[in-house]
Design a protein that fits this description.
With 423 residues, the chain is α+β, with helices and mostly antiparallel strands. It contains 13 helices and 19 strands. The strands form five sheets. An eight-stranded mixed sheet has the order 1-11-12-13-16-10-9-4. Strands 5-7-6 form a three-stranded antiparallel sheet. Strands 8-14-15 form a three-stranded mixed sheet, with no helix packed on it. Helix 3 packs antiparallel against helix 4. The radius of gyration is 28 Å and the shape is elongated.
């Protein structure tokens, strides 16, 4: 959530920058400024009235001691009248604050100056490409056929047990899944990230804190009896560790990693682009999260992008890094880099990671702050990235490494799988 100070001090700049996200903020900003005036005027009148009430209260005692009963009664009547007026002012202030908050949460984060113009994914800017796109043998097939051939993943059984988008991993498929999770966690730990194991359900306050609520409410599975939400990513519970927390500047940046299952309703997702592992309702992912101070957060973002790049390189996957345009960015992000890997059998790029800096947008919702060397508290910056999401990594690993003899396992992963071929 943008701070009120940012909006009121330079509303035209806020409107201009949000236009890059193709969001027309003019009406909302105007309403917020008007509500802020009501709030400030009500508070100003309240402060003046309270000062007068305090003064009158002191005067009443003096008047009574001086035998001026009639004047004292008049002063009492004035105090009573002012207290009734104060109730109305307090109500007006509270109503204005609540209305203002409801409008503030509807405004997305400001895009960073380096965010390119554009409306759709095709307008994203490719920053870098790496790896080698393999040339497959003549009888190569997509991963859903490989999963059936080698009995790795049973999509139909998942439909029977839960529904479409809930696959059942088996044999080598299960072992590959577990190997990737451990590979990603070990690499994160070696890179300085503290591993945590978070809950898979969160309350509404947690969903609000990281911006999933109210913006993406329809995309989350909701356990209505308990008013809890299944997490769409470990970003939500891990970042909420620092909700209502003041950390010391010397402890920043804080670096956490977590494995979790992730749950997304993905309503309206159909067609060939979501076949097999391309889009699931339940999947595994290792997440990295950083809490940092504002002047260092973009250096942290750079380090996180380099770290994710090192993972796809170790897995020997062809990749590209995209700087997202304004129209393709998330509601909460200030700057995002997407990683895509090339699926040789499908002959298309698959997104496997988003690495984002949210600046103080999430921190303002979370009340996540740090205490600087002058003992002053300031909002932190929050960042997160997928490192990595497993389904499309698995899809590309299976497809790109298939041979007539079987599916080759990348060298860096063999110590984790304890096999170098799926036969």
């Amino acid at each position: 959530m943008l701070t009120l100070k940012v909006i009121t001090e330079n509303p035209d700049e806020v409107i201009r920058r949000l236009a890059k996200k193709h969001f027309d903020a003019k009406e909302l900003i105007t309403q917020i400024i008007e509500l802020d005036k009501i709030r400030r005027n009500s508070q100003s009148e309240l402060d003046a009235n309270l000062a007068e009430v305090n003064q009158l209260s002191k005067t009443i005692g003096m008047l009574m001691k001086g035998g001026k009963k009639q004047e004292a009664e008049a002063a009492r009547a004035r105090v009573s009248e002012m207290k009734e007026g104060n109730k109305k002012l307090e109500e007006a202030k509270t109503t204005a604050e609540a209305s203002m908050h409801d409008l503030l949460v509807q405004i997305p984060n400001l895009p960073h100056d380096s965010v390119p113009e554009g409306k759709v994914a095709e307008d994203n800017v490719c920053e870098k490409e790496g790896g080698r796109i393999p040339e497959l043998y003549a009888d190569a097939v997509p991963h859903w056929d490989l999963c059936k051939k080698y009995d790795l993943i049973d999509f139909e059984l998942g439909v029977k047990i839960a529904g479409a988008g809930f696959p059942v991993y088996k044999g080598y498929g299960s072992r590959l899944q577990r190997a990737l999770i451990n590979f990603f966690l070990d690499n994160a730990r070696e890179a300085g990230y503290l591993e945590v194991q978070p809950p898979y359900l969160v309350n509404a306050d947690s969903g609000y804190g990281t911006g999933q609520l109210p913006d993406k409410e329809g995309m989350m599975y909701h356990a209505t009896a308990d008013d809890l939400y299944l997490i769409p990513t470990a970003e939500v519970p891990v970042t909420n560790i620092y909700r209502d927390v003041i950390v010391n500047e010397v402890d920043l940046p804080i670096c956490n990693t977590a494995y979790s299952a992730c749950f997304r309703r993905e309503a309206g997702s159909y067609g060939k682009d979501v076949r097999g592992l391309n889009r699931l309702h339940q999947f595994d992912k290792v997440e990295i999260v950083r809490i940092d101070k504002p002047e260092h957060s973009y250096e942290s973002l750079k380090e996180m992008v380099a770290y994710v790049e090192s993972l796809v390189e170790k897995l020997e996957l062809p990749y590209r890094i995209l700087r997202l345009c304004g129209g393709d960015m998330s509601f909460t992000s200030a700057l995002t880099f997407d990683f895509e890997i090339y699926s040789a059998a499908q002959q298309r790029w698959l997104e496997v990671s988003s690495v984002s800096n949210f600046e103080s947008y999430q921190a303002n919702r979370l009340k996540c702050r740090y205490r600087d060397e002058n003992k002053k508290t300031q909002l932190c910056h929050t960042l997160n990235g997928s490192a990595l999401a497993l389904p499309r990594i698995v899809a590309a690993l299976l497809e790109n490494n298939q041979t007539p003899e079987g599916i080759r396992i990348p060298k860096a992963l063999v110590p984790y799988t304890e096999f170098d071929m799926i036969k």
